[in-house]
Amino acid sequence: MTKNFLAFILIALGIFLIDQNLKSLFLNGFRWDSDYISLILVFNKGVAFSMLSFLQEYLKYIQLGIFLLISIYLVYEKSVFMKYSLPIGILYGAGIGNLHDRFVHGGVVDYIFWHKWFNFAVFNFADVMIDIAVVWIIFLNFRKKSNA
């Protein structure tokens, strides 16, 4: 348990620090543009694809509540934490990074904009890490069931 918890903490902290350092580049004026992708500064007041932006200030408190409920669940369901501690660490680091943005900047700091052939939503490093962690958890879940 101790080894898993230490790995969880180190991964979460590492993802959070990388995320916040990348965002600080854009908050300090960094921009870049090409035919395919632009690195720009956007404050997303909603969740994915700006959904739920109508919730405005309440959204950060709703997300904080969900974060706390999941944390309580993981404390009581140690077996779940043990099985998925690495991807959960990625999820926590990225989630805390985006939640931190909401409290400090009033919205999530997004900066990667794909615009070749179609315009995709502006996103950030934490969003990519969340996607990777979710796919990892799904993979581990299906792999366990197919071996049973």
Residue-averaged pLDDT:
91
Main β-sheet, spatial strand arrangement:
1-2-3
Order of helices and strands: HEEHHEH
* Total strands: 3
Count structural domains.
Answer: 1
Largest sheet: 3 strands, antiparallel
Regions with pLDDT < 50 over 5+ consecutive residues? none
Helix count equals 4
Shape: globular
> Which bin fits the share of residues in helices?
55-70%
Helix-strand makeup class? mainly alpha
Radius of gyration: 17 Å
Strand content: 5-15%
How would you describe this structure to a colleague?
The chain is mainly α and 148 residues long. The protein has one domain. Helices cover 65% and strands 11% of the residues. It contains four helices and three strands, in the order αββααβα. The protein has helices at residues 2-27, 58-76, 78-105, 125-147, and strands spanning 32-33, 37-44, 108-114. A three-stranded antiparallel sheet has the order 1-2-3. Helix 1 (2-27) packs parallel to helix 3 (78-105), helix 2 (58-76) runs antiparallel to helix 3 (78-105) and helix 3 packs antiparallel against helix 4 (125-147). The longest helix has 28 residues, at 78-105. The radius of gyration is 17 Å and the shape is globular. It starts with a helix and ends with a helix.
